[in-house]
Amino acid sequence: MNLCDKIRSGKFVVTSEIGPPKGTDVRPMLEGAGLLKGRIDAINVTDQQSAVMRMGSLAASRLLIDDGHDVVYQITCRDRNRIALQSDLLSAYALGIRNVLALTGDYPSFGDHPQAKPVYDLDSVQLLGAINALGQGRDMMGNELKGSAPFCFGAVVNPGADPIEPEIIRMEKKVAAGARFFQTQAVYDVGGFRMFREMTSHLDAFVLAGVMLLKSAKMARYVNEHVAGVHVPDEIIDRMEKAPDKTAASVDITVNIIKELKGLCHGIHIMPIGWDKVVPRVLDEAGL
User: Fold this and answer.
1) pLDDT of amino acid 94
2) Interior CA angle at 254 toward 234 and 184, to 5°?
3) DSSP H helical segments within 19-81, as ranges?
4) Which of 105, 141, 226, 251 has its CA 20 to 30 A from that of 219?
């Protein structure tokens, strides 16, 4: 079964993600993804994550498909206008890519080319609408296509946003635009996530709760200072600070969060942030 079949069947879905290389050497990407082959349901291929220039997610997705993976092709609104976005989506479908995640994209000032001009011709809700239209055999202007592109497509949501109401309104719009699944921002506050799920119980939305591996207390503090809607509790930071084995502590923290989240969501999305080698250990200890 592919990702959409699993979503329709109600299977508890597990996804992870990998970044294309900054260059043309794809071996580390393929090796990192290889550690997850047969262990997860699909692997996200990030699109210039954090606005850092890398190989495109389109080419990387095709390479991973060739290597036996079911991929989720990420596409952001930051770098392309509506013509290019639709064109890349048609190209993706022609290349055998069937799953798409639509994102706004981090502002260029956060990345390694801060002088770059952002596009943002569409927002993520409009992009979802465009993807939906392509699946029905027409472009955004209603022009008929010679061959449709019926993707399994999803979006992101931040359950820790404050205030949460605008985030829920956008989630409702994304559902209306046709989003079939949601991957969330990293969750450390399970109680807050439970409240978010209660507030969105009226939506027919397949939700994968995001978990992010913390490499250090310094990383946790950076997340608290720079990642909107994500808060790592002081007790977790203190534990990472004092842990003699940072990897073991990070795995244990992540596994405990996953176990608490499992009854509140339809799946888990693991964000290793380059720590691909640790993901199999998380899967084993979490019983995924």
Assistant:
1) 98
2) 90
3) 27-34, 57-66
4) 105
Which two tokens mark 205? 């939305």
Closest CA to 269 of 181, 204, 162: 181
Classify the C-alpha dihedral 49-70-25-218 as positive or negative: positive
> How far apart are alpha carbons 217 and 233 in whole angstroms?
11
How high is the pLDDT of residue 274? 85
Other CB atoms within 10 Å distance of the CB of residue 86: 22
**Cβ contact 267:206 at 8 Å:** yes
How many Å apart are CA 130 and CA 127, to the nearest integer?
5
pLDDT tens readout for residues 122-145: 999 999 999 999 999 999 999 999
Question: What's this model's pTM, rounded to 2 decimal places?
Answer: 0.95
